[in-house]
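Re: the request from the purification team.
They wanted to know what the chain is likely to look like in 3D before they choose a buffer screen. I agreed to run a prediction and write the result into the notebook, where they can find it.
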Amino acid sequence: MLTADVDTAMTRALELAAAAVGWGDTPIGAVVLAPDGRVLAEAANERERRGDPTAHAEVLALRAAAAVHGDGWRLTGATLVVTLEPCTMCAGAAVLARVARIVYAADDPKAGAAGSLWDVVRDRRLNHRPEVTGGVRAEESAALLRAFFRDRRGL
């Protein structure tokens, strides 16, 4: 069962995703919630804006959350809410940050690493495995992504 905090965070993540289109980035947004539901950090994709291949929304949000969380880089008990299933880099970052839960909207069959293409977050060989909930407001996120790529391709 999702809490109101997670639903509110997904609403914000979708807003951030839509904003990323304005600077030419793929519409992906992420919000990190503290264990008590407070927003620790939020970000949108900024790969194009920064010219940085690691500037995914999840990585930017996890970095910012670690800076304010109070337990260094460990985001123990935190929830990562994101509009697209994390890729291998972002899934790995979430595992290494020790987030308790990942909640995402749309599946990513081409690069998803939380169950679609790979399942990095539940790999038993790793020392931490966050709980994963996918499909939360998936159609809204997928519609943003479809519109972005349709516009990019000039269709």
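For the purification team: DSSP finds five helices and five strands in the chain.
Please add any questions underneath this entry.
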